[in-house]
Design a protein that fits this description.
Elements (H helix, E strand, L loop, with lengths): L10 E4 L5 E4 L4 E5 L1 H4 L9 H13 L2 E6 L1 H11 L6 H13 L3 E3 L3 H14 L3 H13 L3 E3 L2 H7 L5 E3 L3 H11 L2
Helix pairs in contact: 3-4, 5-6
């Protein structure tokens, strides 16, 4: 395969099809938590919006980012859904890896930020690590977890999947 040269302002991204695509502009970034990603595999409210995020990521207009714990949380949520089989979990896991989300390993900086946010917002470290990552990357986080949203709503980074603010943000991504 012949290498493509990057043109001014272009970004190179690798997608689940194994191909490297060149985009003309910098993609927007968004941290997702497990409550949004589970909707890719389970019929739940606002599934259409979560699938739209995945679609924008595949198109290259959006980079989906998360701490690597998201894989475990999504697979665990699927494991306890009575409609999901072990085969379904295998397929979902493969799908998650093929998507090439920007997954982040734990770092001292990320864990310290998560601990700070956990105390500040009265949430678990598991939830706070998503918020901490969005703060460190200076990008928003989307959640479908209303309890998490209520606890962290004073943060400028947190958007509830069902909110008007999120819908406006998504429109700006999809039509920019």
């Amino acid at each position: 395969m012949r290498r493509k040269r990057l043109v001014s302002g272009a970004v190179r991204r690798r997608f689940g099809d194994g191909e490297t695509h060149v985009m003309d502009r910098e993609a927007a970034k968004l941290v997702l938590d497990a409550s949004v990603v589970v909707k890719w595999f389970v019929e739940e409210d606002y599934r259409d919006l979560s699938l739209k995020l995945r679609e924008e990521h595949v198109k290259g207009s959006l980079v989906l980012s998360a701490p690597n714990i998201i894989i475990y949380e999504v697979v665990n949520a699927l494991r306890y859904d009575p409609e999901i089989s072990e085969v379904d979990i295998r397929r979902a896991t493969q799908s998650l890896f093929k998507l090439h989300m920007d997954l982040h390993q734990p770092t001292i900086e990320l864990i310290e930020r998560a601990a700070e946010d956990a105390y500040k917002y009265s949430v678990s470290i598991y939830d706070a690590v998503y918020l901490g990552l969005s703060e460190l990357q200076d990008c928003p986080i989307a959640t479908a977890d209303e309890r998490l949203y209520q606890n962290t709503s004073s943060s400028k980074f947190v958007m509830l999947l069902s909110s008007d603010r999120f819908l406006q943000w998504l429109r700006n991504i999809a039509y920019s």
